[in-house]
Each structure stands twice: as C-alpha cells, then as structure tokens.
Amino acid sequence: xxxxxxxxxxxxxxxxxxxxxxxxxxxxxxxxxxxxxxxxxxxxxxxxxxxxxxxxxxxxxxxxxxxxxxxxxx
Length: 74
Hints:
The chain is α+β, with helices and mostly antiparallel strands. 42% of the residues lie in helices and 11% in strands. The chain contains three helices and two strands; from the N terminus they run αβαβα.
C-alpha cells in the first residue's frame, strides 16, 4: 500500500541487508527484472509460475553457509 514491491525490497535491504528476497509478479518488464536482480533479489518469478520450481528455489535459499539462523531473526 503506497509503495511498489521494489520500493519495499529496497527499504527491507537497508534494514536487514542479508535478507533473501524472491520476487513474484505478473509484470514481465525486463527493466524491472534487471533492477530487482541488481538490487540483490535471489530469484524473480513471472506469474503464472511452476510451484515446484518455486519450492525448489526457496528451499535452496535455506541450505548451506548462508542459512538463516534463529538468532538472525531478532
């Protein structure tokens, strides 16, 4: 409300820089896709998207050394 998804993303990254962000949109503007990737989006999905691919990509964000720990949520 009052802000675009990219504006919210930008604000979130200033507050919690290590936040993993997946953007889903019905808009297929390449400029918006490039901007989201440049800002650090982990993935960008255009609707309609494959729910299994989304699950795999999001699950992958929580594996390995970049895994979010419970203490990083507070």
